[in-house]
Q: What sequence folds into this?
């Protein structure tokens, strides 16, 4: 089968399209014929082995995982003897970051608990764009952020996967939502439902004097105190990612600093796929607009990764593995 193979850390161009053996499912695994995959922060960090934590987890000198790609959609081709939830022919999707990676290939073997059934009206491209970003957005806003009806919400780093799905979840709660990102993404942000948009290169939202009930951050770059100043009393600051030293501050001193000021600081630890049932229900009842950059063919994964790393993408970069 065709696969994009990683044999050493480096720039995206170290990735090579190769012919490799088709995998065989173990007892608890499903063999998926991959239709689409999506580029993720995991892939960008993994290929370069940066930050160092990736090397600590996946091999100091050489990567132990050879095929990247954490979000997949496709069709079940075969199942192991112990698989109970799927049959050949089922259309599925999921986040396989805790199931061995491998989405940048024509076939992948995955534990069945890393997949859910794809709604019939959801395209394979949409299904690949959703699992990781939608779970971070849902868990950040709903589970950890405890979003309430009619709140004022700000999403920082709004033009990526999390923000463009997050606004659509927030709108189900009647929220008034502000999105912060680069100027060239602001029209798209308005289109997917943001009521207000801020260009972070022109304006620092933490210095504007505006206050919110909930801030969801995908790009934490400031200290918890700075963000707390933009929250109403009782407000919540929830981060899903950002600069490591700032995230460490949010985990360590954030909760205490927050409590002293009558607010909360929380960090989301993603539970992959856990609430994809909510996403399917939302898609089937209201529809979800997936902002897709691409799709790119499989052989162009290195170009797509570079596009991601150079911060030129909007929404999710999708790879079409089999049209
Ligand atoms: N919590 C967990 O368990 C967990 C698990 C996996 C991943 N993550 C993290 O979750 C996040 C995923 O979010 P995503 O997929 O939506 O990311 P994304 O696609 O990279 O989107 C982030 C957006 O923020 C913009 N941005 C860059 N600098 C900014 C700034 N200073 N202020 C405001 N916006 C800025 C980016 O623009 P440019 O691209 O143009 O710079 C981009 O549009 C990542 O941080 C990832 O590391 C968390």
A:
């Amino acid at each position: 089968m065709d696969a994009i193979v990683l044999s050493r850390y480096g720039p995206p161009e170290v990735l090579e399209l190769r012919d490799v053996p088709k995998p065989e499912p173990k007892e608890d695994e499903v063999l998926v014929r991959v239709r689409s995959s999506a580029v993720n922060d995991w892939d960008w960090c993994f290929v370069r082995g940066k930050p160092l934590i990736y090397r600590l987890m996946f091999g100091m000198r050489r990567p132990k995982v050879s095929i990247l790609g954490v979000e997949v959609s496709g069709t079940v081709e075969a199942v192991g003897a112990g698989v109970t939830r799927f049959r050949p022919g089922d259309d599925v999707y999921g986040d396989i970051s805790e199931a061995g990676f491998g989405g940048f290939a024509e076939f992948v073997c995955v534990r069945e608990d890393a997949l859910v059934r794809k709604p019939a009206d959801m395209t394979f491209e949409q299904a690949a764009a959703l699992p990781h970003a939608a779970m971070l957005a849902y868990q950040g806003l709903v589970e950890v952020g405890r979003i309430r009806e009619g709140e004022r919400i700000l999403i920082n780093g709004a033009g990526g996967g999390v923000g463009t799905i997050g606004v659509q979840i927030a709108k189900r709660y009647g929220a008034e939502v502000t999105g912060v990102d680069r100027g060239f993404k602001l029209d798209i942000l308005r289109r997917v439902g943001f009521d207000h948009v801020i260009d972070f290169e022109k304006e620092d939202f933490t210095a504007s004097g505006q206050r919110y009930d909930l801030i969801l951050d995908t790009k934490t770059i400031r200290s918890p105190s700075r963000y707390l100043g933009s929250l109403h009393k009782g407000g919540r600051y929830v981060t899903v990612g950002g600069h490591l030293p700032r995230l460490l501050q949010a985990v360590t001193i954030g909760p205490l600093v927050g409590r002293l000021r009558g607010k909360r600081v929380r960090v989301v630890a993603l539970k992959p796929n856990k609430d994809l049932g909510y996403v399917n229900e939302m898609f089937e009842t209201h529809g979800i607009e997936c902002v897709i950059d691409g799709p790119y063919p499989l052989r162009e994964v290195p170009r797509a990764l570079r596009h991601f790393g150079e911060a030129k993408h909007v929404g999710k970069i999708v790879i079409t593995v089999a049209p």
